[in-house]
Amino acid sequence: MIVKTILEHVKNQFESDTTGHDWFHIERVYKIACHLHTKEGGDLEIIQLSALLHDISDHKMNGGKLNDGGNVALQLLIQNGYNEEKAIIVANIVDGVSFKGALVKDQQISIEGKIVQDADRLDALGAMGIARAFTYGGSKNRPIYEPAVLPELHDDFKKYATAKSHTINHFYEKLLLLKDRLHTKTAQVIGLKRHQLMEEFLEQFYDEWNLTNLD
Ligand code: ADP
Ligand code: NI
Questions:
Q1: Mean of pLDDT over the chain
Q2: Terminal-to-terminal C-alpha distance of the chain
Q3: SS (HEC) of the chain
Q4: Would you say the CB of residue 122 lies under 6 angstroms from ligand 1?
Q5: How far is the CA of 50 from the centre of ligand 2 (A)?
Q6: CB 29 within 8 A of CB 120
Q7: Which of 16, 26, 113, 121 falls 20 to 30 Å from 37 in CA-CA distance?
Q8: Among all ligands shown, which has an atom nearest to the Cα of 130?
Q9: Considering just the CA atoms, what is the radius of gyration of the chain in Å?
Q10: How far is the CA of 95 from the centre of ligand 1 (A)?
């Protein structure tokens, strides 16, 4: 019941998003997380709620507030009559989900947290990852590519969250690093295939940018 209530709430809130964090992203993360649960275990209800709420107040869409999602998730769950102890578990997972910089360590300790973070990361990889990256970049007025602006590996969440580089840099600052930051075996297998597609995409992108291989 609580899962259905939260699902409807999140669906309403995210239906009109145009930054690559639309309801379909949340729904895919939810479904991937449920799939990972069948292979990796964990508490299904905690996984489902955390997946649905993982982007509920993300710094990329809430005007730059960091670490706000857990609090919003907690309030929402308690307002809907959910057990407080479990709501705190979900809130902690939500706070730990986001990528916070290439050199910032991940904090997910529980299997439920690892599964939700893996599911979110898989949706940042592959064809979907490429589509979402350029959609997000466009929504924030970022150029596709500026060859003179090199990627930076951030050691601090705030620096990462306020950086404004072109979208090709996002591949080096986050997306290509994700395959080695997936926790579960099941996600690692799926992630590797998606990673390889992004490598091929970048190779062809540079060929077309540099007008090599025209014959
Ligand atoms: P996370 O919380 O780990 O960032 P999200 O689901 O909130 O995961 O969104 C991540 C997606 O947002 C990225 O995978 C990418 O598609 C997009 N994104 C975030 N930052 C950038 C950026 N600087 N340039 C391009 N896309 C970005
Ligand atoms: Ni997400």
A1: 97
A2: 60
A3: CHHHHHHHHHHHHHCCCCCCCCHHHHHHHHHHHHHHHHHHCCCHHHHHHHHHHCCCCCCCCCCCCCCCHHHHHHHHHHHCCCCHHHHHHHHHHHHHHCCCCCCCCCCCCCHHHHHHHHHHHHCCCHHHHHHHHHHHHHHCCCCCCCCCCCCCCCCCHHHHHHCCCCHHHHHHHCHHHHHHHCCCHHHHHHHHHHHHHHHHHHHHHHHHHCCCCCC
A4: no
A5: 11
A6: yes
A7: 16
A8: 1
A9: 17
A10: 15
| C-alpha atoms less than 13 angstroms from C-alpha of 26 in its C-beta half-sphere | 29
pLDDT digits (tens, 9 = 90+) for 71-119: 999 999 999 999 999 999 999 999 999 999 999 999 888 999 999 999 9
**What pLDDT was estimated at residue 203?**
98
Q: Is the CB of 170 under 6 A from ligand 1?
A: yes
Smallest CA separation from ligand 1 atom 27, residue: 133
Tell me the CA–centroid distance for residue 215 and ligand 1, in Å. 36
CATH number of the structural domain spanning residue 63: 1.10.3210.50
**CB-ligand 1 contact for 124 (6 Å cutoff):** yes
Ligand closest in space to the Cα of 141: 1
- Residue 88 domain flag: yes
Classify residue 67: in a domain, yes or no.
Answer: yes
In a domain, 215, yes or no: no
Ligand 1 pocket check for 54: Cβ under 6 Å: no
Q: Is 58 in the pocket of ligand 1 (CB under 6 A)?
A: yes
Ranges of residues in the chain with a pLDDT under 70 are none
To which residue do tokens 């308690």 refer? 78
